Each structure stands twice: as C-alpha cells, then as structure tokens.
Amino acid sequence: MDALEKRRKSFNDWYKKNKSRFNAERREKYSSDASLREKYVSRQKEYRKKSSNGIPSKTIELNGNQVEVFRIGYASKFVGRPSATIRSWELAGVIPKATASIGKHRYYTKGQLVLIRELADMLNILVDDHEARKLAMDTKSKEIHNLWSA
Q1: Residue 2: what are its φ and ψ, rounded to 5°?
Q2: pTM score > 0.85 for this model?
Q3: Domains of the chain, first to last
C-alpha cells in the first residue's frame, strides 16, 4: 500500500467514526454563516450553468462550420422518447449514428433532432397498425439517412 492509499484509508476511517459530528458542524456553519451560504449557492448556480441541464447545447466545429449540438438527454426531451429508445434506433440503424461524439457522449444537431422527432411523431400516429408502422419506419429511416448530414 503506497502513501496515498494509506492517507485515503486513514481519512475514510476517521470520517466513518466522526461523520455525524462532522456533518452537524458543517450544517451549523452553513445555517449561521450567510457569506458561506452565498458562496455555496453561487457555486451551485455556476455548476448548473455549466451542466447539460443548464445549457443544453455546445458549439463545436463540424465539417468546417460552427454548429450547435445537443446531448442525448436533451434530445430525449425534445423528441419525447426515452434516451434508450433513441440509442436503440441508432443501434438498429433506423437513424444514423450521432454526428458528433465528444468523450463518449452522443451529440445531435438541431436538424437531426427535428428528423428524429418526425420519426417519433409518425410512430405515435401508427401505434395500433404494426405492419404500417414497420413500413413507415423503414421509409422514414431511409429519408433520415439521406437528410442526416445535410
């Protein structure tokens, strides 16, 4: 065990023994110190601004152009389907793979989100007729593949 692991284990042991006292002191300090509370609140606001929920898009360079892209969580809300459904459509080849992938995250352009939402809307209309739904899905999938990078 190296020095860092020993320090980490030592701290974890100390924290387990002193957790309730430590957290009680921290809560007391937070409730009584307005400047500390303001610091925590502003830090939390700043974190939200940086997170994908606060700012759902990023601007990246794609094919020489600056493009606004959205993570799959936002895409899910925009389309009205779970992220897993969008991933499964991608895996099945119904929609092409996400254009941008940054750090193993799927990013979609606004145009791609519109195409995916059109597919989802079409499938909502044809919910009862399985054959018509499959035919429409294949047709729309071909259209999406043609328009994806446009």
Answers
A1: -80, 175
A2: no
A3: 3-50 (no CATH), 57-147 (1.10.1660.10)
